């Protein structure tokens, strides 16, 4: 990336800062350049369900005019994008064939710190009257009852001076709708500015509410008739924003106690609601249709694999907020760091960007050091609202599965303050920046649990280079399990390893995977889990230590640079360790391209592990597939979403339809069920993928891996397992195609001569392949290696069996 002059840096910083206002919603007309559609990244949220509730069918462009009146709560966190979403919805529905939308912003119209339902109702009436302006004419008889209500019940001076000292905006005349607009505006202004008449007005509305509601309903019904006649809308829809700022008793009074008043008004309403009122009161769902806007779900709970589609959407948001340019970013990986630490909280992501710019002062780009300072500042913001007793509850929630959502005054407060984040299907997890606080780490150490743990002072995991010119060109297993000084030098795009049983094929894949993960303890953890066929939920530290190798050292050349990683474990003599539960420490030391990295992980009995490191960077994305380890469909959700984003899915379906099952046209993931459903012309209904044979499942799941491993490696153990021998040749061609498209290097194992021969006989370019036989020689495992052309000549010359190599 080219250097920026000081003047250019300052100009870009100032331009970006104007886009980082996180205290106001985006306007769909004036802020179009900043808008990013995040709905697909929120999980199971969809505006379509809300439209259906309102009787809207966009396909036919029609409104069900017999649809019953709707009272809708649109809830979620402050800063999750509700206000922007409501404005987009208003623009979408304000159409002659749908609704005449009246958007009321309570933050602008009223005092949100002292608010009741009558205030909102008066503001709704005011905005409606002002918005109608001269658009339609209203017959006096329909105004008379409302005017009489003012005369009989509002026993105060309604002159403009009595309330605001200035004419109400939009008041043009003293008769008809303009008069009512002026009267309602005066009342609203009096309430908003805290006039001495505020309680008098509220009392007048409360004591004569039925009369007011009857007069207002008569007028609204007539206005809707006039709107239809003028082709301005079929019905009125009031959208009220800002009421999500109500909290505690104020929210309960507004959304629960005043419900009888709210439902006396005959119209359609959408109210913005705070997340705690949706969680707290069971009556809410009985009185309202409830729609929640969850956080952007960037990962499943307690997983380190980030979902590609949400991350890509938030990357787009960052670039747009930085004035459409990535030039202020020193490193593209810093974007992912900010996204991960935002937890999918849109406003916090914007806050982090704003804090980053304040840290640079317009004098340098945003790098990881700047990002970490911004993260510390956001964590400090949250620390001020967390009480000492909250940390134990946060850790408890984080450690449990998705179904654990303990409702209490404490948890509702944490939700309100965004310390706890809620995702689709309504599971909770603490904010990522909160988990960096020392008090949270201390709470983790104090609570017993399975072999899990957090990172202390660790930069988010990234790869060294987003783009690479070469993958591995040399591998050396100096010491790992049964291997001693095993050298692999003939390495191509696709590498097939074979050998007799127990010759170390799977072990070699593990070594390559560990080398790619560098000093990441999670990579070592995954290898041992995979070997032991143990899920994360059933791990414990004592079992893990029994499976841990004594030590290992791995080396190689990746992208033209030397790479290595070594592991050792030992008992520390440190005095600050709780020796009653301490078991062992595992040290990983890694080196790549003049960069040294180290991590130290302490393991405890019945307590979370603790990992300390300056940084954790991986050589490249790496995906390990085995037919024998926990291949449940939900584990492929992230791979599926990445394949969708990269447009790989149509190619996969085309291959399956052409060469595997002709009738299949689609295999889609149902996020809510975490299952794959198959559209097959041979059946009337969709079928679960698990109802098909294991061969189709294996082909589909392996094909999904490549988009997630772009510019990295895929390791496939026992490639031919469950795949019919007649399909192996066709599938290896497809694997070759995917590896080129996504710039992926592939390492496979096989114990089948038919599989080895299929690769030789079916590949379009044999130079992209290398073949290796692992054989025992002088009590050591060595590799007999052949380039693709070399092995093809051998195979053409006679019936060669690579497995029998000596």
Give a brief description.
By secondary structure, the protein is α/β, with parallel strands linked by helices. It is built from 30 helices and 28 strands.
Explain this structure to me?
This protein is α/β, with parallel strands linked by helices. 40% of the residues lie in helices and 20% in strands. The chain is built from 30 helices and 28 strands. The strands form seven sheets. The chain has an eight-stranded mixed sheet, with helices on both faces. Strands 21-25-26-14-27-28 form a six-stranded mixed sheet, with helices on both faces. A five-stranded parallel sheet has the order 4-5-6-3-7, sandwiched between helices. α6 packs parallel to α8, α16 packs across α17 (346-360) and α28 (725-741) crosses α29 (753-762). The model is unreliable at 157-173, 448-452 and 454-460 (pLDDT under 50).
The number of helices is: 30
Tell me the radius of gyration: 32 Å
Give the DSSP E fraction (strand runs of 2 or more residues). 15-25%
Strands across the major sheet, in which order? 10-19-18-17-16-15-12-13
SS-based structural class? Answer: alpha/beta
Q: Return residue spans where pLDDT drops below 50 for at least 5 consecutive residues.
A: 157-173, 448-452, 454-460
Helix content: 40-55%
Q: Could you tell me the mean pLDDT?
A: 84
